[in-house]
Amino acid sequence: MSKVAIEFAGVKKSFGNKLVVNGVSFTVASGECFGLLGPNGAGKSTLARMVLGMTRPDAGKVTVLGVPMPARGRLARKGIGVVPQFDNLDLEFTVRENLLVFGCYFGMSTRAIEAIIPSLLEFARLESKAHARVADLSGGMKRRLTLARALINDPQLLVMDEPTTGLDPHARHLIWERLRFLLARGKTIILTTHFMEEAERLCDRLCILDHGCNIAEGSPYALIEEHIGCPVIEIFGGNPQELSSLIRPYVQRVEVSGETVFCYAPDPEQVRAQLRGRSGLRFLQRPPNLEDVFLRLTGLELEK
Ligand SMILES: Nc1ncnc2c1ncn2[C@@H]1O[C@H](COP(=O)(O)OP(=O)(O)OP(=O)(O)O)[C@@H](O)[C@H]1O
Ligand SMILES: [Mg+2]
């Protein structure tokens, strides 16, 4: 098996006159979990579709499981499991029928699919729903079925576009546990997510995209150390502008987002000392996390 599962080299893509992928390069090693993070519209799903050979780059090279994409897409897709951003299940079919039909796309025999269905239902905790129509499932159940369906061909590589969006916290923890299990068995995962905790827990490495550019890449820990590297205090309950001017001399950086002042403070005690005696203020002191990195690097603006 190739040691490199995915390679993007100088990849560009425009839709009309809008450049949505602007010279992206990265490599994902076999057995790694690699994250694609970025604000809405940053180009994550476009890159995920390129891994599947469903979107053709205008420039650059995409190689997946040792073959060029999209030229050898059919071959590569035999070894890939897909969780698209939006579920595309057959609503009129039952859970079981959805799995049967999907398995047929991979040329599996009905017997082979039937043999694997119980473990897939167990994976998704849908054992009691085998004969339910998909239209009658909750949103989270549909998502879990899409996840289970992605495993039907025992893929080497999983391409997961926001796998846990719409799931409740229990279901999300269940899926994280299952994805860890797959990683422990040597699978490779490329995943997009808006949940920074998910990326921090699962990803060996990740890149942050903004306006189609790869603006940072590394392990979650390395990115947090490089871009933040000190404790964070969130302060709310006062006038954010006034508070931020008051503490600015005592912190590395201060930012206001809505009613909250974010202080990046190597010496948190100095900040607290400045604000002692002020009534009504609330403090939350915590270690830095990936969300701090994300906000710092991508800014707080929404896609226009
Ligand atoms: N088929 C298409 N035709 C035209 N524009 C497209 C097409 N697909 C994507 N785009 C545009 O490309 C940009 C990137 O879209 P993409 O879906 O890759 O973003 P994303 O990072 O996945 O966003 P989100 O977090 O909202 O899912 C967006 O501006 C989007 O409108
Ligand atoms: Mg997307």
Structural class: alpha/beta
- Biggest sheet features: 6 strands, mixed
Strand composition percent? 25-35%
CATH architectural designation of the largest domain: 3-Layer(aba) Sandwich
Helix content: 25-40%
Number of strands: 14
Termini separation: 43 Å
Bound molecules: adenosine-5'-triphosphate, magnesium ion
Radius of gyration from CA coordinates: 22 Å
Task: Give me a quick take on this structure.
With 304 residues, this protein is an alpha/beta fold. It folds into two domains: 4-225, Rossmann fold (3-Layer(aba) Sandwich); 230-287, Alpha-Beta Plaits, CATH 3.30.70.330. The protein has helices at residues 44-51, 73-77, 95-105, 110-123, 139-149, 169-184, 196-202, 220-227, 240-247, 268-275, 290-298; strands at residues 4-15, 18-29, 33-37, 59-64, 67-69, 80-83, 157-161, 188-192, 205-210, 213-218, 232-236, 253-257, 260-264, 282-286.
Describe this structure in words.
By secondary structure, the protein is α/β, with parallel strands linked by helices. It folds into 2 domains: 4-225, P-loop containing nucleotide triphosphate hydrolases (Rossmann fold, 3-Layer(aba) Sandwich), CATH 3.40.50; 230-287, 2-Layer Sandwich (Alpha-Beta Plaits), CATH 3.30.70. The chain is 35% helix and 28% strand. It has 11 helices and 14 strands. The chain has helices spanning 44-51, 73-77, 95-105, 110-123, 139-149, 169-184, 196-202, 220-227, 240-247, 268-275, 290-298; strands spanning 4-15, 18-29, 33-37, 59-64, 67-69, 80-83, 157-161, 188-192, 205-210, 213-218, 232-236, 253-257, 260-264, 282-286. A 6-stranded mixed β-sheet has the order 6-7-8-3-9-10, with helices on both faces. Strands 2-1-4-5 form a 4-stranded antiparallel β-sheet. A 4-stranded antiparallel β-sheet has the order 12-13-11-14, covered by helices on one side. Helix 3 (95-105) crosses helix 4 (110-123) and helix 8 (220-227) crosses helix 11. The radius of gyration is 22 Å and the shape is globular. The mean pLDDT is 94. The protein binds adenosine-5'-triphosphate and magnesium ion. Magnesium ion binds at residues 44-45, 85, 161.
